[in-house]
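Contributing: when you submit paired examples, paste them exactly as shown. First protein:
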Amino acid sequence: MIATLSGALAVRDAGRIVVETGGVGYEVLIPLSTYYRLPQLGERVSLMIRQVVREDALLLYGFSNATEKRAFDLLMSVQHVGPKLALAILSMLAPEELVAAIGKGDVERIDAVPGVGPKVAERVVRELRDKVADLKMAAPSTSTSNGHLRPVPDAAARPAGPSDEAISALVNLGMKPIEAKRTVDAVIAADAGAAQNPEIIIRKALAVLLGEK
Protein backbone atom coordinates (compact mmCIF):
# COMPACT_ATOMS: atom_id res chain seq x y z
CA MET A 1 0.00 0.00 0.00
CA ILE A 2 1.45 3.35 -1.05
CA ALA A 3 1.28 5.85 1.84
CA THR A 4 3.58 8.65 0.64
CA LEU A 5 5.14 9.64 -2.67
CA SER A 6 8.09 11.91 -3.42
CA GLY A 7 9.69 12.81 -6.70
CA ALA A 8 9.94 15.35 -9.51
CA LEU A 9 6.74 17.09 -10.58
CA ALA A 10 6.40 16.13 -14.27
CA VAL A 11 2.78 17.16 -14.97
CA ARG A 12 0.81 19.84 -13.15
CA ASP A 13 -2.88 20.08 -14.00
CA ALA A 14 -5.84 21.12 -11.87
CA GLY A 15 -6.96 17.90 -10.24
CA ARG A 16 -4.19 15.72 -11.67
CA ILE A 17 -0.40 15.55 -11.47
CA VAL A 18 2.35 13.13 -12.42
CA VAL A 19 5.23 12.51 -10.03
CA GLU A 20 8.36 10.86 -11.45
CA THR A 21 10.53 8.78 -9.17
CA GLY A 22 12.81 5.83 -9.86
CA GLY A 23 12.16 6.07 -13.59
CA VAL A 24 8.38 5.69 -13.12
CA GLY A 25 5.71 8.36 -13.48
CA TYR A 26 2.85 8.07 -11.00
CA GLU A 27 -0.45 9.74 -11.81
CA VAL A 28 -1.97 11.27 -8.68
CA LEU A 29 -5.41 12.84 -8.35
CA ILE A 30 -5.53 15.82 -6.00
CA PRO A 31 -7.95 18.40 -4.56
CA LEU A 32 -7.50 22.04 -5.53
CA SER A 33 -6.19 22.83 -2.05
CA THR A 34 -3.16 20.66 -2.79
CA TYR A 35 -2.90 21.96 -6.36
CA TYR A 36 -2.46 25.51 -5.05
CA ARG A 37 0.57 24.38 -3.03
CA LEU A 38 2.46 22.60 -5.80
CA PRO A 39 5.98 23.75 -6.72
CA GLN A 40 7.15 24.48 -10.25
CA LEU A 41 7.43 21.73 -12.85
CA GLY A 42 10.62 19.74 -12.41
CA GLU A 43 10.93 20.53 -8.72
CA ARG A 44 10.58 17.93 -6.00
CA VAL A 45 7.18 17.32 -4.41
CA SER A 46 6.11 15.10 -1.51
CA LEU A 47 2.52 14.03 -0.92
CA MET A 48 0.55 11.88 1.45
CA ILE A 49 -1.22 9.18 -0.57
CA ARG A 50 -4.44 7.22 -0.30
CA GLN A 51 -4.37 4.23 -2.63
CA VAL A 52 -7.74 3.02 -3.91
CA VAL A 53 -7.92 -0.35 -5.66
CA ARG A 54 -10.75 -1.06 -8.08
CA GLU A 55 -11.41 -4.01 -10.34
CA ASP A 56 -10.25 -2.06 -13.37
CA ALA A 57 -7.72 0.36 -11.90
CA LEU A 58 -5.33 1.26 -9.09
CA LEU A 59 -5.76 4.94 -8.28
CA LEU A 60 -3.62 7.26 -6.18
CA TYR A 61 -5.06 10.30 -4.40
CA GLY A 62 -2.58 12.84 -3.04
CA PHE A 63 -2.79 15.41 -0.25
CA SER A 64 -0.56 18.15 1.10
CA ASN A 65 -1.14 17.19 4.74
CA ALA A 66 -2.58 14.56 7.06
CA THR A 67 -5.73 16.58 7.80
CA GLU A 68 -6.78 16.61 4.15
CA LYS A 69 -6.12 12.90 3.85
CA ARG A 70 -8.14 12.13 6.97
CA ALA A 71 -11.00 14.31 5.74
CA PHE A 72 -10.92 12.42 2.43
CA ASP A 73 -11.13 9.09 4.27
CA LEU A 74 -14.06 10.28 6.37
CA LEU A 75 -15.94 11.50 3.31
CA MET A 76 -15.29 8.18 1.60
CA SER A 77 -16.97 6.42 4.51
CA VAL A 78 -20.26 8.14 3.71
CA GLN A 79 -22.72 6.20 1.59
CA HIS A 80 -22.73 7.28 -2.07
CA VAL A 81 -19.58 9.39 -1.68
CA GLY A 82 -16.81 8.06 -3.90
CA PRO A 83 -13.25 9.35 -4.41
CA LYS A 84 -14.18 11.84 -7.13
CA LEU A 85 -16.94 13.41 -5.07
CA ALA A 86 -14.75 13.47 -1.95
CA LEU A 87 -12.08 15.39 -3.90
CA ALA A 88 -14.72 17.80 -5.20
CA ILE A 89 -15.91 18.53 -1.66
CA LEU A 90 -12.36 19.11 -0.41
CA SER A 91 -11.64 21.33 -3.42
CA MET A 92 -14.44 23.67 -2.39
CA LEU A 93 -14.32 23.27 1.39
CA ALA A 94 -11.09 23.14 3.39
CA PRO A 95 -11.20 20.54 6.19
CA GLU A 96 -11.90 23.18 8.84
CA GLU A 97 -14.73 24.59 6.71
CA LEU A 98 -16.15 21.09 6.25
CA VAL A 99 -16.05 20.49 9.99
CA ALA A 100 -17.79 23.82 10.62
CA ALA A 101 -20.51 23.03 8.07
CA ILE A 102 -21.09 19.59 9.58
CA GLY A 103 -21.14 20.98 13.11
CA LYS A 104 -23.73 23.61 12.17
CA GLY A 105 -25.77 21.18 10.11
CA ASP A 106 -25.21 23.43 7.10
CA VAL A 107 -26.46 21.03 4.43
CA GLU A 108 -26.79 23.80 1.84
CA ARG A 109 -23.08 24.65 1.95
CA ILE A 110 -22.12 21.05 1.22
CA ASP A 111 -24.91 20.73 -1.35
CA ALA A 112 -23.36 23.70 -3.22
CA VAL A 113 -20.51 21.42 -4.34
CA PRO A 114 -21.24 20.30 -7.92
CA GLY A 115 -22.43 16.69 -8.02
CA VAL A 116 -23.29 16.34 -4.32
CA GLY A 117 -27.05 16.90 -4.14
CA PRO A 118 -29.18 17.46 -1.02
CA LYS A 119 -29.54 13.79 -0.04
CA VAL A 120 -25.80 13.13 -0.08
CA ALA A 121 -25.15 16.43 1.71
CA GLU A 122 -27.57 15.36 4.44
CA ARG A 123 -25.77 12.01 4.75
CA VAL A 124 -22.41 13.77 5.10
CA VAL A 125 -23.75 15.88 7.97
CA ARG A 126 -25.57 13.01 9.65
CA GLU A 127 -22.90 10.31 9.31
CA LEU A 128 -19.87 12.47 10.09
CA ARG A 129 -21.26 14.63 12.87
CA ASP A 130 -19.67 12.44 15.55
CA LYS A 131 -16.54 11.54 13.57
CA VAL A 132 -14.93 14.85 12.66
CA ALA A 133 -13.73 15.70 16.16
CA ASP A 134 -10.44 13.87 15.55
CA LEU A 135 -9.58 16.12 12.60
CA LYS A 136 -6.80 18.38 13.83
CA MET A 137 -7.45 21.83 12.44
CA ALA A 138 -4.35 23.80 11.59
CA ALA A 139 -4.14 27.36 10.35
CA PRO A 140 -2.69 27.76 6.83
CA SER A 141 1.08 28.10 6.92
CA THR A 142 3.74 29.24 4.51
CA SER A 143 5.41 25.85 4.47
CA THR A 144 4.73 22.19 5.16
CA SER A 145 6.61 19.57 7.09
CA ASN A 146 7.93 17.90 3.93
CA GLY A 147 9.34 21.17 2.58
CA HIS A 148 8.28 20.44 -0.99
CA LEU A 149 4.89 22.15 -1.11
CA ARG A 150 4.07 25.82 -0.86
CA PRO A 151 0.78 27.58 -0.13
CA VAL A 152 0.32 29.34 -3.47
CA PRO A 153 2.18 28.81 -6.77
CA ASP A 154 3.92 31.85 -8.19
CA ALA A 155 3.39 33.13 -11.72
CA ALA A 156 6.30 31.14 -13.14
CA ALA A 157 4.66 27.90 -12.01
CA ARG A 158 1.40 28.56 -13.77
CA PRO A 159 0.87 27.19 -17.27
CA ALA A 160 -0.44 29.39 -20.09
CA GLY A 161 -4.17 29.92 -20.53
CA PRO A 162 -5.35 30.81 -17.02
CA SER A 163 -9.04 30.96 -17.96
CA ASP A 164 -8.84 27.56 -19.68
CA GLU A 165 -7.07 26.15 -16.63
CA ALA A 166 -9.80 27.50 -14.36
CA ILE A 167 -12.52 26.03 -16.58
CA SER A 168 -10.75 22.66 -16.56
CA ALA A 169 -10.57 22.72 -12.77
CA LEU A 170 -14.28 23.48 -12.45
CA VAL A 171 -15.17 20.73 -14.91
CA ASN A 172 -13.08 18.32 -12.84
CA LEU A 173 -15.24 19.31 -9.88
CA GLY A 174 -18.34 18.18 -11.74
CA MET A 175 -19.54 21.35 -13.46
CA LYS A 176 -20.74 21.19 -17.05
CA PRO A 177 -18.26 22.82 -19.46
CA ILE A 178 -20.78 25.47 -20.53
CA GLU A 179 -21.59 26.32 -16.91
CA ALA A 180 -17.89 26.42 -16.00
CA LYS A 181 -17.10 28.76 -18.91
CA ARG A 182 -20.05 31.02 -18.06
CA THR A 183 -18.90 31.27 -14.42
CA VAL A 184 -15.28 31.98 -15.38
CA ASP A 185 -16.34 34.60 -17.93
CA ALA A 186 -18.49 36.27 -15.27
CA VAL A 187 -15.60 36.34 -12.81
CA ILE A 188 -13.25 37.89 -15.37
CA ALA A 189 -15.89 40.42 -16.45
CA ALA A 190 -16.30 41.50 -12.82
CA ASP A 191 -12.56 41.58 -12.11
CA ALA A 192 -10.32 42.01 -15.14
CA GLY A 193 -7.28 41.84 -12.88
CA ALA A 194 -8.02 38.17 -12.19
CA ALA A 195 -7.77 37.21 -15.86
CA GLN A 196 -4.09 36.26 -15.66
CA ASN A 197 -4.26 34.36 -12.38
CA PRO A 198 -5.99 30.95 -12.60
CA GLU A 199 -5.96 30.51 -8.83
CA ILE A 200 -7.89 33.75 -8.27
CA ILE A 201 -10.35 32.86 -11.05
CA ILE A 202 -10.99 29.43 -9.51
CA ARG A 203 -11.39 30.80 -5.99
CA LYS A 204 -13.80 33.52 -7.13
CA ALA A 205 -15.78 31.02 -9.20
CA LEU A 206 -16.08 28.69 -6.22
CA ALA A 207 -17.16 31.62 -4.08
CA VAL A 208 -19.93 32.34 -6.58
CA LEU A 209 -21.06 28.72 -6.40
CA LEU A 210 -21.11 28.85 -2.61
CA GLY A 211 -23.03 32.13 -2.62
CA GLU A 212 -20.19 34.09 -1.02
CA LYS A 213 -19.26 37.67 -1.74
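Second protein:
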Amino acid sequence: MMRIADRWFETKRIDDRITLLWEPHVARLDQCNMWHVRGRDSDLLVDAGMGISSLKSAMAALLNKPLIVVATHSHTDHVGSLHEFEHRLVHPLEAHSLATPATYPVLCSCHWPGTSRANIEAQGYEVPDVMIDAYPHEGFDPFTFRPRGTQATRLIDEGDVVDLGDTAFEVLHLPGHSPGSIGLWEKNTGTLFSGDAIYDGPLLDKIGGANVTDYQRTMHRLKNLPVEVVHGGHDPSFGRARMLELAEDYLRRSEQG
Protein backbone atom coordinates (compact mmCIF):
# COMPACT_ATOMS: atom_id res chain seq x y z
CA MET A 1 0.00 0.00 0.00
CA MET A 2 1.20 3.50 -0.80
CA ARG A 3 2.17 5.87 1.98
CA ILE A 4 0.14 8.95 2.88
CA ALA A 5 1.80 12.19 1.81
CA ASP A 6 2.73 14.67 4.55
CA ARG A 7 1.42 17.38 2.22
CA TRP A 8 0.20 17.22 -1.34
CA PHE A 9 1.50 20.50 -2.76
CA GLU A 10 4.92 22.13 -2.71
CA THR A 11 5.58 25.83 -3.29
CA LYS A 12 8.58 27.88 -4.34
CA ARG A 13 8.84 31.67 -4.35
CA ILE A 14 10.29 32.68 -7.72
CA ASP A 15 10.46 36.43 -7.04
CA ASP A 16 8.52 39.10 -5.15
CA ARG A 17 5.33 38.41 -7.14
CA ILE A 18 5.50 34.91 -8.66
CA THR A 19 5.08 31.67 -6.71
CA LEU A 20 5.28 28.20 -8.24
CA LEU A 21 3.08 25.40 -6.91
CA TRP A 22 3.27 21.74 -7.93
CA GLU A 23 2.22 18.23 -6.89
CA PRO A 24 5.42 16.30 -6.09
CA HIS A 25 3.69 12.92 -5.76
CA VAL A 26 2.28 13.03 -9.29
CA ALA A 27 4.28 11.43 -12.11
CA ARG A 28 6.25 13.84 -14.29
CA LEU A 29 3.84 13.50 -17.23
CA ASP A 30 0.99 14.94 -15.16
CA GLN A 31 3.00 17.13 -12.77
CA CYS A 32 1.70 20.52 -13.84
CA ASN A 33 3.30 23.83 -12.90
CA MET A 34 0.80 26.19 -11.28
CA TRP A 35 1.86 29.85 -11.29
CA HIS A 36 0.50 32.38 -8.78
CA VAL A 37 1.15 36.02 -9.75
CA ARG A 38 0.51 38.87 -7.35
CA GLY A 39 -1.21 41.96 -8.74
CA ARG A 40 -2.39 45.23 -7.26
CA ASP A 41 -6.12 44.68 -7.64
CA SER A 42 -6.31 40.96 -8.44
CA ASP A 43 -3.99 37.98 -8.43
CA LEU A 44 -3.57 35.46 -11.24
CA LEU A 45 -3.31 31.68 -11.09
CA VAL A 46 -2.16 29.95 -14.25
CA ASP A 47 -3.45 26.34 -14.30
CA ALA A 48 -4.87 24.25 -11.47
CA GLY A 49 -3.28 20.81 -11.27
CA MET A 50 -4.94 17.41 -11.02
CA GLY A 51 -7.67 18.06 -8.46
CA ILE A 52 -6.55 15.17 -6.23
CA SER A 53 -6.41 17.42 -3.17
CA SER A 54 -7.75 20.93 -2.56
CA LEU A 55 -5.54 23.50 -4.24
CA LYS A 56 -7.52 26.39 -2.78
CA SER A 57 -6.86 25.18 0.75
CA ALA A 58 -3.18 24.58 0.03
CA MET A 59 -2.65 28.13 -1.25
CA ALA A 60 -4.78 29.85 1.39
CA ALA A 61 -1.82 31.94 2.61
CA LEU A 62 -1.51 33.45 -0.88
CA LEU A 63 -5.18 34.37 -1.24
CA ASN A 64 -5.73 37.88 0.08
CA LYS A 65 -7.45 39.48 -2.92
CA PRO A 66 -9.66 38.44 -5.86
CA LEU A 67 -8.13 35.62 -7.89
CA ILE A 68 -8.40 35.13 -11.64
CA VAL A 69 -7.67 31.53 -12.67
CA VAL A 70 -6.66 30.88 -16.27
CA ALA A 71 -6.47 27.37 -17.72
CA THR A 72 -3.93 27.28 -20.54
CA HIS A 73 -5.87 24.29 -21.88
CA SER A 74 -8.32 21.70 -20.59
CA HIS A 75 -6.17 18.59 -20.07
CA THR A 76 -6.80 16.93 -16.72
CA ASP A 77 -3.41 17.83 -15.22
CA HIS A 78 -4.12 21.55 -15.72
CA VAL A 79 -7.76 21.94 -14.67
CA GLY A 80 -8.41 19.45 -11.87
CA SER A 81 -8.97 22.08 -9.17
CA LEU A 82 -10.42 24.77 -11.41
CA HIS A 83 -13.91 24.20 -9.99
CA GLU A 84 -12.72 25.47 -6.59
CA PHE A 85 -12.35 29.03 -7.83
CA GLU A 86 -14.88 31.71 -8.70
CA HIS A 87 -13.27 33.21 -11.82
CA ARG A 88 -12.39 30.52 -14.39
CA LEU A 89 -11.02 31.57 -17.80
CA VAL A 90 -10.35 29.33 -20.79
CA HIS A 91 -10.24 29.47 -24.60
CA PRO A 92 -13.58 28.75 -26.34
CA LEU A 93 -12.18 25.62 -28.01
CA GLU A 94 -11.42 24.13 -24.57
CA ALA A 95 -14.71 24.97 -22.83
CA HIS A 96 -16.59 21.80 -23.78
CA SER A 97 -13.91 19.39 -22.59
CA LEU A 98 -13.49 21.46 -19.42
CA ALA A 99 -17.16 20.85 -18.64
CA THR A 100 -17.09 17.16 -19.66
CA PRO A 101 -13.97 15.56 -18.17
CA ALA A 102 -12.76 12.00 -18.65
CA THR A 103 -14.88 9.27 -17.07
CA TYR A 104 -12.15 6.60 -17.02
CA PRO A 105 -9.59 6.20 -14.18
CA VAL A 106 -7.12 8.92 -15.20
CA LEU A 107 -4.65 7.94 -12.47
CA CYS A 108 -4.42 4.33 -13.70
CA SER A 109 -2.65 4.27 -17.06
CA CYS A 110 -3.53 0.64 -17.72
CA HIS A 111 -7.14 1.80 -18.03
CA TRP A 112 -6.49 4.69 -20.41
CA PRO A 113 -8.41 4.35 -23.68
CA GLY A 114 -6.97 2.92 -26.86
CA THR A 115 -3.27 3.37 -27.49
CA SER A 116 -2.92 6.61 -25.53
CA ARG A 117 -0.38 5.22 -23.06
CA ALA A 118 1.77 3.69 -25.80
CA ASN A 119 1.61 6.92 -27.84
CA ILE A 120 2.79 8.99 -24.89
CA GLU A 121 5.60 6.55 -24.07
CA ALA A 122 6.71 6.69 -27.71
CA GLN A 123 7.01 10.46 -27.40
CA GLY A 124 9.52 10.22 -24.56
CA TYR A 125 7.70 9.84 -21.24
CA GLU A 126 7.88 7.06 -18.72
CA VAL A 127 4.28 6.22 -17.82
CA PRO A 128 3.83 4.26 -14.57
CA ASP A 129 0.80 2.05 -13.98
CA VAL A 130 -0.36 4.46 -11.28
CA MET A 131 0.31 8.16 -11.80
CA ILE A 132 0.95 8.94 -8.13
CA ASP A 133 3.50 7.59 -5.62
CA ALA A 134 1.56 8.49 -2.46
CA TYR A 135 -2.04 9.04 -1.37
CA PRO A 136 -3.32 12.46 -0.31
CA HIS A 137 -5.25 10.95 2.60
CA GLU A 138 -6.43 7.68 4.12
CA GLY A 139 -9.02 5.87 2.02
CA PHE A 140 -8.04 7.48 -1.29
CA ASP A 141 -8.55 5.12 -4.23
CA PRO A 142 -6.78 6.06 -7.48
CA PHE A 143 -9.02 3.67 -9.42
CA THR A 144 -12.22 5.49 -8.43
CA PHE A 145 -10.81 9.03 -8.69
CA ARG A 146 -12.41 11.03 -11.49
CA PRO A 147 -11.68 14.65 -12.44
CA ARG A 148 -14.46 17.12 -11.79
CA GLY A 149 -15.79 19.23 -14.65
CA THR A 150 -16.72 22.87 -14.41
CA GLN A 151 -18.04 25.71 -16.53
CA ALA A 152 -15.83 28.58 -17.62
CA THR A 153 -16.97 31.95 -16.32
CA ARG A 154 -15.18 33.84 -19.10
CA LEU A 155 -13.95 32.77 -22.52
CA ILE A 156 -10.68 34.33 -23.66
CA ASP A 157 -9.05 34.35 -27.08
CA GLU A 158 -6.21 35.94 -29.03
CA GLY A 159 -5.66 39.58 -28.04
CA ASP A 160 -7.82 39.54 -24.91
CA VAL A 161 -6.28 40.98 -21.76
CA VAL A 162 -6.15 39.67 -18.19
CA ASP A 163 -5.77 42.80 -16.07
CA LEU A 164 -4.36 42.65 -12.53
CA GLY A 165 -4.41 46.42 -12.00
CA ASP A 166 -0.69 47.18 -12.08
CA THR A 167 0.09 44.82 -14.94
CA ALA A 168 -1.77 43.03 -17.69
CA PHE A 169 -1.27 39.82 -19.62
CA GLU A 170 -2.17 39.49 -23.29
CA VAL A 171 -3.75 36.21 -24.36
CA LEU A 172 -1.88 34.41 -27.16
CA HIS A 173 -3.64 31.56 -28.96
CA LEU A 174 -0.91 28.90 -29.29
CA PRO A 175 -2.55 25.75 -30.71
CA GLY A 176 -0.79 22.48 -31.44
CA HIS A 177 -0.77 20.59 -28.17
CA SER A 178 -4.52 21.17 -28.07
CA PRO A 179 -6.86 23.26 -30.23
CA GLY A 180 -7.40 26.00 -27.65
CA SER A 181 -4.00 26.12 -25.98
CA ILE A 182 -3.11 29.64 -24.89
CA GLY A 183 -0.23 31.54 -23.36
CA LEU A 184 -0.20 34.70 -21.26
CA TRP A 185 2.27 37.36 -22.40
CA GLU A 186 3.50 40.23 -20.25
CA LYS A 187 5.18 42.50 -22.78
CA ASN A 188 6.84 44.96 -20.40
CA THR A 189 8.85 42.20 -18.69
CA GLY A 190 9.13 39.72 -21.57
CA THR A 191 7.46 37.06 -19.43
CA LEU A 192 5.50 34.24 -21.07
CA PHE A 193 3.35 31.72 -19.22
CA SER A 194 3.26 29.16 -22.01
CA GLY A 195 1.21 26.24 -20.71
CA ASP A 196 2.04 23.20 -22.83
CA ALA A 197 2.74 25.18 -25.99
CA ILE A 198 6.41 24.99 -25.06
CA TYR A 199 8.28 23.63 -22.04
CA ASP A 200 11.66 22.01 -21.45
CA GLY A 201 10.58 18.40 -21.91
CA PRO A 202 8.98 16.06 -24.45
CA LEU A 203 6.30 18.00 -26.32
CA LEU A 204 3.21 15.91 -27.00
CA ASP A 205 1.80 16.28 -30.50
CA LYS A 206 0.48 12.74 -31.05
CA ILE A 207 -2.39 12.79 -28.58
CA GLY A 208 -6.10 13.46 -29.04
CA GLY A 209 -6.71 17.02 -30.23
CA ALA A 210 -3.06 17.72 -31.09
CA ASN A 211 -2.06 19.00 -34.52
CA VAL A 212 1.52 19.05 -35.79
CA THR A 213 0.92 21.78 -38.38
CA ASP A 214 -0.58 24.06 -35.73
CA TYR A 215 2.31 23.27 -33.41
CA GLN A 216 4.80 24.25 -36.11
CA ARG A 217 3.04 27.59 -36.62
CA THR A 218 3.10 28.17 -32.88
CA MET A 219 6.85 27.50 -32.76
CA HIS A 220 7.50 29.96 -35.58
CA ARG A 221 5.43 32.53 -33.72
CA LEU A 222 7.28 32.00 -30.46
CA LYS A 223 10.63 32.41 -32.19
CA ASN A 224 9.62 35.96 -33.12
CA LEU A 225 8.35 36.86 -29.65
CA PRO A 226 10.83 38.98 -27.59
CA VAL A 227 10.74 36.59 -24.65
CA GLU A 228 13.02 37.00 -21.64
CA VAL A 229 11.68 34.14 -19.52
CA VAL A 230 9.26 31.27 -20.13
CA HIS A 231 7.29 29.73 -17.26
CA GLY A 232 5.93 26.54 -18.84
CA GLY A 233 3.24 24.08 -17.92
CA HIS A 234 5.85 21.48 -16.92
CA ASP A 235 9.52 21.29 -16.01
CA PRO A 236 11.87 24.21 -15.13
CA SER A 237 11.59 27.76 -16.46
CA PHE A 238 14.05 28.98 -19.08
CA GLY A 239 15.20 32.02 -21.02
CA ARG A 240 15.10 33.14 -24.63
CA ALA A 241 18.13 31.16 -25.81
CA ARG A 242 16.67 27.90 -24.54
CA MET A 243 13.26 28.75 -26.00
CA LEU A 244 14.82 29.18 -29.43
CA GLU A 245 16.65 25.85 -29.07
CA LEU A 246 13.45 24.06 -28.11
CA ALA A 247 11.45 25.64 -30.93
CA GLU A 248 14.10 24.86 -33.55
CA ASP A 249 14.45 21.30 -32.27
CA TYR A 250 10.70 20.74 -32.50
CA LEU A 251 10.54 22.18 -36.01
CA ARG A 252 13.43 20.04 -37.18
CA ARG A 253 12.04 16.82 -35.73
CA SER A 254 8.47 17.42 -36.85
CA GLU A 255 9.49 18.34 -40.39
CA GLN A 256 11.50 15.12 -40.63
CA GLY A 257 8.31 13.22 -39.80
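If you have annotations for the second protein, write them as plain sentences, like these:
The helical segments are 55-58, 76-79, 95-99, 116-122, 212-223, 240-255.
The chain has one domain: 10-255.
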